[in-house]
Every structure is written in structure tokens, then in C-alpha cells.
Specification:
The complex is a heterodimer of chains A (about 110) and B (about 110).
Chain A: E1 5-7, E2 10-13, E3 19-24, E4 31-38, E5 42-50, E6 53-57, E7 64-68, E8 74-78, E9 87-94, E10 103-104, E11 108-112
Parallel strand pairs in A: 2-11
Antiparallel strand pairs in A: 1-3, 3-8, 4-5, 4-9, 5-6, 7-8, 9-10, 9-11
Chain B: E1 4-7, E2 10-14, E3 19-25, E4 32-38, E5 45-51, E6 56-59, E7 62-67, E8 72-77, E9 86-92, E10 100-101, E11 105-110
The chains are: A mainly beta (about 110), B mainly beta (about 110).
């Protein structure tokens, strides 16, 4: 069974640009959650999607958004990038809503210069 | 909201010794407690989890204990091996809610 696939693995963007990250969950999983990981703040919850609906949202500015498609694949978008957005963005896949087993992808390392 | 503390932040043990990492949580409604291992350059890997209706769970060299009254849970690794070296994260959540992670413990197993 294939794991969680995140693309791209690495990204370098300039301040002010926008970026889209992609996550393909484990086959059959319907929930996708996104987390930001930084050395200073650790793992912080961004949002969760289940059946194409955002169920939960963390405490991040509106520049961070996401969506989920009918095949459960998810994308997250960050607009007007800031230096502080540099982080590892992780996607977690769960069979049902969050609070069941969650399996993470390898992440997308975003560097904003 | 939920707050999870984790100790110690770094831990060094000799190969073959045991390692214990402790977490405390603040929300008594939390009922699911997973542990993740993250190696350099990789995403977190689920290694064991426990629900609030269980006091202890074991999987080979790894065990987790939960004390609901005291609101703390611990990860126990026995007979440590160099490949156990990684950063370990605990987390807590209530049904349908996101995970709140601890800050992590960097475990080094010295040969």
C-alpha cells in the first residue's frame, strides 16, 4: 500500500510570491490534515479536510488556505509569502476524521528568500 | 485549548539500556495519544498509540502507559539500538479534533 505522497519535496520562493503544495493520501483515507513544522514552534496544526470540507482550522492567517478534491487529494496554498513561512509542511492522512491513526508524508521543505 | 508538555528535551542512553519519555496534557477531554518518531529528513512515523480507555499498550520493545487521573503518558523503549536514535513526539487529541504535539525529545543511543 503506497504511503502519503507530498510534492514537491523542496521549494524555494521569494517573498511576496505564492505557493501551492500537494498531498496524496493513502488509498481509501478520507481525511487530510496539514501541519507546519519549524524549529521554534514545533508541529502546528494548519487545517483538516474530510470529504472535501474543511473541518478544522488552526491559528494561522488567511494567507494559508487549502482544499480537498473528490479523490481525497489535497492542496494547500500560501499567498504573499513571508520569510517566517519557511518551514517543513507536513500532510497527514487518516481513514476517517482526525483522532484516528494518522500517517504523515515526507513533507515539503519550503524556503522563502 | 489543549497544551502538551514533553520531557526531557534531549536524552542520551547507552545501547541496550531503556529510555523513557514523559508527556503531560491539560485537557481532560483528550482521549487519543499517539507517539511519533521522526528521523532526519523524514516525516513523523507513527510508532504506537493509546486510547483513554486503556492504561498500557505494548508492541515489542515499545510500550506506552497512560495515567488519566494525572493527565500524563509515557513512552518506554527497552533494549535500545542505534536505529532508535531520532526525535520523538507525543500528541494528544479529542475525537474529531487536531493533534496537539509536544515539543519533541531528541534521543541518542550511544554504541
Amino acid at each position: 500500500k503506497a504511503g502519503v505522497t507530498q510534492t514537491p519535496r523542496y521549494l524555494i520562493k521569494t517573498r511576496g510570491q505564492q505557493v501551492t503544495l500537494s498531498c496524496s493520501p493513502i488509498s481509501g483515507h478520507r481525511s487530510v490534515s496539514w501541519y507546519q513544522q519549524t524549529p521554534g514552534q514545533g508541529l502546528q496544526f494548519l487545517f483538516e479536510y474530510f470529504s472535501e470540507t474543511q473541518r478544522n482550522k488552526g491559528n494561522f492567517p488567511g494567507r494559508f488556505s487549502g482544499r480537498q478534491f473528490s479523490n481525497s487529494r489535497s492542496e494547500m496554498n500560501v499567498s504573499t509569502l513571508e520569510l517566517g513561512d519557511s518551514a517543513l509542511y507536513l500532510c497527514a492522512s487518516s481513514p476517517e476524521v482526525h483522532n484516528t491513526e494518522a500517517f504523515f508524508g515526507q513533507g515539503t521543505r519550503l524556503t522563502v528568500v | 485549548g489543549e497544551n502538551v508538555e514533553q520531557h526531557p528535551s534531549t536524552l542520551s542512553v547507552q545501547e541496550g539500556d531503556s529510555a523513557v519519555i514523559k508527556c503531560t496534557y491539560s485537557d481532560s477531554a483528550s482521549n487519543y495519544f499517539p507517539w511519533y518518531k521522526q528521523e532526519l529528513g523524514k516525516g513523523p512515523q507513527l510508532i504506537i498509540d493509546i486510547r483513554s480507555n486503556v492504561g498500557e499498550k505494548k508492541d515489542q520493545r515499545i510500550a506506552v502507559t497512560l495515567n488519566k487521573t494525572a493527565k500524563h503518558f509515557s513512552l518506554h523503549i527497552t533494549e535500545t539500538q542505534p536505529e532508535d536514535s531520532a526525535v520523538y513526539f507525543c500528541a494528544a487529541s479529542n475525537y474529531g479534533q487536531n493533534f496537539v504535539f509536544g515539543p519533541g525529545t531528541r534521543l541518542s543511543v550511544l554504541p
